Amino acid sequence: MFRLEKPSLELENTYIDYITEWEESGEEIVPFVSRRNGLDYKELFYRWEVLSTDRAYDHGFVPSSLYFLVDENNRIYGAIHIRHVLNESLLKNGGHIGYGIRPSERKKVMQPSCCHWRYQL
Predict the structure, then answer these.
(1) To bridge 56 with a disulfide, which of 36, 61, 102, 120 should be the other Cys (CB 3.0-4.6 Å)?
(2) What sign for the dihedral angle of Cα 80, 121, 111, 88?
(3) In what order do the strands lie in the sheet with 64-70?
(4) For a pLDDT cut of 90, what percent of the chain falls above it?
(5) What is the DSSP letter of 31?
(6) 3 state DSSP class of 17
(7) SS3 for 34-102, per residue?
(8) Among 106, 19, 102, 98, which Cα is nearest to 66's?
(9) How far apart are CA 119 and CA 90, in angstroms?
(10) What is the model's pLDDT at position 118?
């Protein structure tokens, strides 16, 4: 059974496994907010917390929420990034929702599931 879960400190090891697979694939990591960008997990966790509030504007972003698609063992299969509002730039070249599925789990019915799950938030 799959569920969407906000990042938590308990997901650190499974996140590292998830993001390492993306990085080793050489593909562009989506959604972009799930990238490491040289930060350790605790720094990322804090960043994701800040970006989910109006403090995001102070960093040049709009408020947004990140969720991981996880199974009963907390294995991360994908991520979905939902922007709470859009600015002019995002209206033209972005949107409210971005999501990605880890490379090894594509074509296994995951992508439609991730899109479907966003409606249950």
Answers:
(1) 61
(2) negative
(3) 3-5, 64-70, 76-83, 97-101
(4) 71
(5) S
(6) helix
(7) HCCCCCCHHHHHHHHHHHCCHHHHHHCCCCEEEEEEECCCCCEEEEEEEECCCCHHHHHHCCCEEEEEC
(8) 98
(9) 21
(10) 54
Instruction: Let me know: does 61 contact 81? Beta carbons within 8 Å.
Output: no
Minimal CA–CA distance to 76: which of 30, 12, 31, 23?
12
pTM: 0.87
Domain that includes residue 68, residue range: 3-120
Please tell me the total count of domains within the chain: 1
Strands 64-70 vs 97-101: parallel, antiparallel or unpaired: unpaired
Q: Report pLDDT digits (tens) over 81-114.
A: 999 999 888 888 888 888 999 999 988 755 555 5
Cis status, amide bond into 7, omega within 30 of 0:
no
Residues 44-56 have pLDDT tens digits of: 999 999 999 999 9
Residue 5 has pLDDT above 90, yes or no: yes
For 107: left if phi > 0, alpha if psi spans -120 to 50, otherwise beta; the answer is left
Question: Where residue 63 sits, what CATH number does that domain have?
Answer: 3.40.630
